[in-house]
Amino acid sequence: MFEDVLLAKEKVGSFVRRRLEEFENLGRFGETYFNFKPFLDAEYKADLFSELCFCLLTANSSASLGIKAQMQIGTEGFKTLSLEELTEILSSLGHRFARQRAERIVKARESFHRTLELLKNGSSPQELRDLLSDACSKYKVEGFGLKEASHFLRNIGYKDVAIIDRHIFRFLKEKKLIPDYKTVTRKIYLQSEKVLKEVAQGLGMSLAELDLYVFYLKTGKVLK
């Protein structure tokens, strides 16, 4: 049933391993150097905050656009540019929600000390995800739901959370592993993650690794 994933591993396994290493370095050292070639002409340094901003930017958008924005704005730009400057850059790149995402970046900047505090407290990735996405949590990042929080955690080295986005849903539906859900509730998200985890375990992969292969199968690229 999953021959396509195994074929993808044979074809782009080296790029997936490199990406996972970049994620691990980001979580361990607080910064990393991303190289997206040959899938995208982009390579740059990222830190924890710029990666959080990347995950804010990709929601209802695309990884490619998020990468272009992250490369152009740079680590210092996310920390220092004004709301108007961020909005202008995002607009120039064609982001549909430029002003809204710029506002969220500024808000995240103001509370990032709490995010760092949370990441240091030793909680499980599932607990971290809930605290980053729960509206009642003091650690809530505006714009983060379960998917965005999972995305951020995966990109800083946590391997045991799933990014249940449109690519993953399509993959699971095509494999007839989940029904054709019309809306995504927390219950459906977690049920889908459980199914995906069983698939990953059967293939001898982490959720983080499987996600990158599924993304490749759906887009032809190994991004993040």
UniProtKB/TrEMBL annotation:
What GO molecular function annotation could you give as one example from this UniProt entry? class I DNA-(apurinic or apyrimidinic site) endonuclease activity
Q: Which GO terms describe its biological process?
A: base-excision repair
Q: Which residues are annotated as site, described as Important for guanine/8-oxoguanine distinction? A: K224
Query: Which SUPFAM superfamilies does UniProt cross-reference here?
Result: DNA-glycosylase
Q: InterPro entries, from UniProt?
A: DNA_glyclase/AP_lyase_Ogg (IPR012092), DNA_glycosylase (IPR011257), HhH-GPD_domain (IPR003265), HhH_base_excis_C (IPR023170)
Q: What does this protein do?
A: Catalyzes the excision of an oxidatively damaged form of guanine (7,8-dihydro-8-oxoguanine = 8-oxoG) from DNA. Also cleaves the DNA backbone at apurinic/apyrimidinic sites (AP sites).
Q: What protein name is recorded for this chain?
A: 8-oxoguanine DNA glycosylase/AP lyase
Task: Please give the organism.
Answer: Thermocrinis ruber
